[in-house]
Amino acid sequence: MSSEFRLRVQFEKREKGAWLSHLEVLHTVDRIVRRARLPYAITQGFNPHMKLAFGPALGVGTGSTGEYFDVWLSEYVKPDNVLAALQQASTAVLPIVAVGYVGAKEPSLAASLTIMEFRARVYALDIEVSELEAEFRRLQQQEVIEIEQKNKIKFFDPATCIPKDVIVSQEEGVTEITLTLRVSQAGSLRPDSLLNLALANCNAHYSHFMMVRTSLFSEIDDGQWVRPL
Amino acid sequence: MSLPNLFARIEPLLARVERPSRYINSEYGAVHSDEHVDCHVGFCYPGTYEVGQANQALQILCYQASRLDSVSVQRVFLPWVDLSELMRSHDIPLFTLEECNPVRDLDILGITLPYELSFTTILEALDLAKIPFYSRDRDESYPLIIGGGPSVYNPEPVAGFFDAFLVGEGEEAVAEIIGQYREWKQAGESKTALLKRLASLSGVYVPSLYNVSLSTDELTGAAIIDAVTPNDGLSPVIYKRVVTNMDEQTPPTCPVVPYMDVVHDRFALEVLRGCTRGCRFCQAGMTYRPVRERSADEIVKLALKGIACTGYDDVSLTSLSTADHSQLEEVLRRLNKQLQGSGVSVSLPSLRVDAFSVDMARLIAGSGKKSGLTFAPEAGTQRLRNVINKNVDEQQLLDTIGYAFDAGWRRVKLYFMIGLPTETDADIEAIGQLAYKVFEVAREHTPKGQRGNIRIGVSVSTFVPKAHTPFQWEPQNTLEEIYRKHKVLRDAMPRKGIELSYHDAEVSFLEGVVARGGRDLAPVLVQAWKNGARFDAWSEQFRLSRWIDAFETCDFDPTLVANRERSFDEILPWDHLSTGVSKSYLKREALRARDEKTTKDCSFSGCTGCDACDVLGVDIVVGGVRS
């Protein structure tokens, strides 16, 4: 174990890549690392496989400008060389942005990345920005939000799950909404569910929306939010 | 000349469908053409992405065509029913994958015919693309529609829908076809002129230039072919195209790597083409002759290149009978050495029982994951195995199981067939007895603590007589008989240790109709499509009632095709297409089957006189010694 090097990689899930599922991204990253010919470490046991770990899953239809995975290498390779190799081995919809080594004892990405920022772009929305903004404020002021996710009714405490005010703006006919959500052990409030709830409460009509996760943060002891890389 | 891109209209629909990654392209290895294109070619697999993308022939043809200057090559797959419904309601036509261009705007559309029940899905593709079904209804403004693939050896049921077919192997022909098209386009000629140009190419069959005259048999009421008459100057028989040397054909070593899981999610490398074991039910064994091996050096080189380029963790050495490759042990030894410690494994598809030895077991075991082995004894008794010319005996099978379980395998799947010519209930009961013996041997060769992991799967299909085989004259068992035989099979299977599955008898019956149907089946296909038949290989989509209704509407008796025995003298719908194997050879084999006599494999022993090498001007290519 001590002879392995933990490399953290930042990548994007861009444009058409938004339509990949989390599992499809996992499998693709496995192949990207192989194509890059990195000296990856392999797990022991009955079914040896590449040692990879990912951050929180992203739903189908949601893109991202900041996703992360950790890969363990059996040899040290200069970050610049790793970055070049991974970029060559990847595709335009899953571009590799940055790499860096992290300590072996760092908590896992899945456990540590608890704050997520999203940007939704809603097309042909027929209500005013102010009305939608007011609805989000109203939801945030409730004690509990009741919301349907995956055919089940779930309850969320907005004070915990929505740590920042929702921002709504409009540009060239497209309504843009910035949502910041906190992951919880009991299950996460999905950004598309929250957006759908707000739009439904406003009786709004629209053509479609596109969701992008723009940032992921860990919360450290003093309440600060830090990026993983 | 650039074509419109439809993705902006498609994307808003993706949130409403299953598995949207089917439609997004941009995979690693995908080629997007530049602007200087004067010929737009599409290769269509009539099925969804996850089935079609794994098709090796599609990959080979796309690769060959993409090497031509100024040619745009794009893949076309069928959207699943959820998206096709939305496309129709939003007036979005079928689109190509790479550039999301309307398929209607392509110059050439090649469609593979992978199996008989894909024919109505081909109609679905044409309808979604807003292309008229029948060739006679399409002028020069529509794409040239060319068919090819495994079911092209009897294309007659769909002959009216295609402008031309390529019979045989396409690596060299694809450039010729595109070349003729481009010359035609520059010359500004009529469609008739294009079809004549194509008919002049070796291996290209233009059905509209061959007239089929029919009459009705007084005794049976069946439609009988009186003659197949070519237009002036055309050969009465079209011989398949064949590649003489596999080492001279470079396969794609950096193919598209899908994002989504596809049916065979690994780097597949064809190690040889053709199989002359001579199983009498097997169409592929007749149509892909002669045997041509890729050399060990080429296989190892291409496998390593493919793994490095794609990033797959599994390389599959594919062919009809990989274990027969004369240099396979050398290939496995070299690959195991090169791939050691990389986590990459080597897998082989269905193995012949008689080609699997102790050494082979160890080599395959050493090449990585032992997911499971598959063998195809096909029949339960030696008598019936002799009838079908499956030269495998029971002791060989049991020894093979022993080797496999000694080497650490715990899962084996056995393929059998029912409905074979001369079959009796005793033959079916013997499947159960054999499965039990396999289970016992597996237990004997497994340490006590691991016996709970043993899995013996028995998969039983229904015999479908196929064109260009010695059994092409045989009647298929009726549906009622198959249901009865299924019961015999179930009663004969051991109660524990064996997982039995069998193919849907109704699907097999339909395959039997389409596999030996003629041009008079075309209206039935159209009617079945109108009734909703598409994706019939997917069990949740298949409804026999759609077909029964189509047969009734068209006043077509399917039993006269599937369940009728043919005489040796009858002109068969596919007789004007040749695999190189002579009809007299097939007849000889049919008679030997009735006498329970076996025929050896010419790539192991001497020539058996099928005529394929002489007729096609090719030879067996074997690197080592087959034994």
Give a brief rundown of this model.
The complex is a heterodimer of chains A (229) and B (627). With 229 residues, chain A is an alpha+beta fold.
Structural summary, described in words:
The complex is a heterodimer of chains A (229) and B (627). Helices cover 25% and strands 35% of the residues of chain A. With 229 residues, chain A is an alpha+beta fold. In chain A, strand 2 and strand 3 (62-73) form a beta hairpin. The longest helix of chain A has 14 residues, at 22-35. By secondary structure, chain B is of the alpha/beta class. Chain B has helices at residues 7-10, 49-52, 56-66, 81-89, 119-128, 173-187, 191-199, 283-287, 296-310, 328-339, 358-365, 382-387, 394-406, 425-444, 479-492, 505-515, 522-530, 544-553, 559-562, 583-594, 612-616; strands spanning 39-45, 71-77, 108-112, 144-148, 164-166, 204-205, 210-216, 223-230, 238-239, 267-270, 272-273, 292-293, 314-318, 345-347, 373-378, 411-418, 455-462, 498-502, 577-578. Chain B has a six-stranded mixed beta sheet with strand order 2-1-3-4-5-6. In chain B, helix 14 links the parallel strand 16 and strand 17. Chain B is globular. The chains are: A alpha+beta (229), B alpha/beta (627). Chain A binds chain B through residues 16-17, 19-21, 24, 27-28, 30-35, 37, 42, 47-50, 60-61, 89-93, 207-208, and chain B through 7, 11-12, 14-15, 20-21, 23-28, 257, 259-261, 307-313, 341, 343, 369.
